[in-house]
Design a protein that fits this description.
By secondary structure, the chain is an alpha/beta fold. It contains eight helices and eight strands, in the order βαβαααβαββαββαβα. It has a single domain, classed as Rossmann fold (3-Layer(aba) Sandwich), CATH 3.40.50.170. β3, α5 and β4 form a beta-alpha-beta unit. The model has no long low-confidence stretch (mean pLDDT 92).
Length: 256
C-alpha cells in the first residue's frame, strides 16, 4: 500500500496530545484527508462533575501547577512562538469534520466515502463495530502504558501506585474490546523515584511521533514492523477511587 490515506480523531488537549497532532500534520499533511476534534468530557458528564474529578485527582497545589503549565503553552501560541492545531489545519487545507461522537452514523458514512486506510485515534471514546469497519486497514490507538498489563484509565497513576520500575507507550489496532487488538509498536520507559504522573506521560508522549512513523512506514510498504505478541494477561484499571487517590499521596507520589 503506497501512501496510506490517514484520518485523525483527537481531543483538543494542549499538554500531551496537540504536539503529536502538530507533528502528524507537518509530516503527513499530504496523506491526511481529514481531522475531527471531539470533546473529552463525555456526553453524560456535566461541566461541574468533569472539573470536580480533576480537582479531586490533582488537589489544590497540583491543579495550580497544571493551570500554570497550560497557561504557558497558550501564551506561546498567542505570542506566535508556537502554531496551534487549528492554524496548521487551515495552513494545509485539511478537511475538518465536526462531530460529537465517532459513532455518529453520518460521520461513519463520510469516513467510508473518503476511502480511509488508517484512523489515528487520540480520544477516549469507545469505537463501535461500524466505525472500526469503515476503514480499510484499521484504527490505531495510543495508550500510555505497556499493554496488556495496564489497560484502562490513567495508567501512569496506577504504575506509580503499584511501585512499578518501568512503564511505556503502546500503539495498537483497535477492536471492540477496550485496549485490546494487535500491538504494532511498544516502547518501554523507566520510572525513577522523582517521577510524577505528569513526567511519565510527558516521557511517553515524546516517543509517540517516532512510533507513528514506524506504523506509517510499515503500511507504506517500507520497513516492516515485527508484530508484538502479548506476554502477560489483560488487566483493566478503572478511574481511581477516593481511597486510591489518598493512598497515592500517602505513598509520597505526586501528580505534577
Amino acid at each position: 500500500m503506497k501512501n496510506p490515506r490517514l484520518y485523525i480523531v483527537t481531543i483538543n488537549e494542549s499538554l500531551y496530545i496537540n504536539p503529536i497532532i502538530k507533528w502528524l500534520i507537518k509530516n503527513y499533511h499530504k496523506q491526511i484527508v481529514g481531522i475531527s476534534i471531539v470533546s473529552d468530557r463525555g456526553k453524560k458528564q456535566s461541566v461541574f462533575d468533569y472539573y470536580k474529578k480533576i480537582y479531586d485527582l490533582f488537589r489544590f497545589i497540583g491543579l495550580v501547577k497544571l493551570v500554570n503549565v497550560f497557561s504557558s503553552i497558550k501564551l506561546k501560541e498567542w505570542l506566535g512562538f508556537s502554531r496551534s492545531v487549528s492554524s496548521l489545519v487551515k495552513k494545509y487545507n485539511i478537511n475538518q469534520i465536526k462531530i460529537k461522537s465517532v459513532n455518529d452514523p453520518q460521520f461513519i458514512s463520510k469516513i467510508r466515502a473518503k476511502n480511509i486506510d488508517i484512523i489515528f485515534s487520540f480520544c477516549g471514546e469507545i469505537y463501535k463495530k461500524e466505525i472500526l469497519e469503515a476503514v480499510n486497514v484499521g484504527t490505531v490507538n495510543k495508550h500510555c502504558a505497556l499493554l496488556p498489563a495496564y489497560g484502562g484509565v490513567y495508567p501512569a497513576f496506577w504504575v506509580l501506585l503499584n511501585n512499578e520500575k518501568e512503564t511505556g507507550v503502546t500503539l495498537h489496532l483497535m477492536e471492540l474490546k477496550i485496549d485490546a487488538g494487535q500491538i504494532l509498536v511498544q516502547k518501554k520507559v523507566p520510572i525513577s523515584s522523582k517521577d510524577t504522573m505528569h513526567s511519565i506521560y510527558s516521557k511517553c508522549h515524546k516517543l509517540v511521533p517516532g512510533m507513528i512513523k514506524q506504523v506509517v512506514e510499515h503500511y507504506n510498504g517500507g520497513r516492516k514492523l515485527k508484530m508484538i505478541k502479548k506476554e502477560s494477561k489483560d488487566n483493566y484499571y478503572s478511574y481511581p477511587k477516593k481511597e486510591d487517590i489518598d493512598n497515592f499521596y500517602k505513598s509520597g507520589h505526586r501528580m505534577i
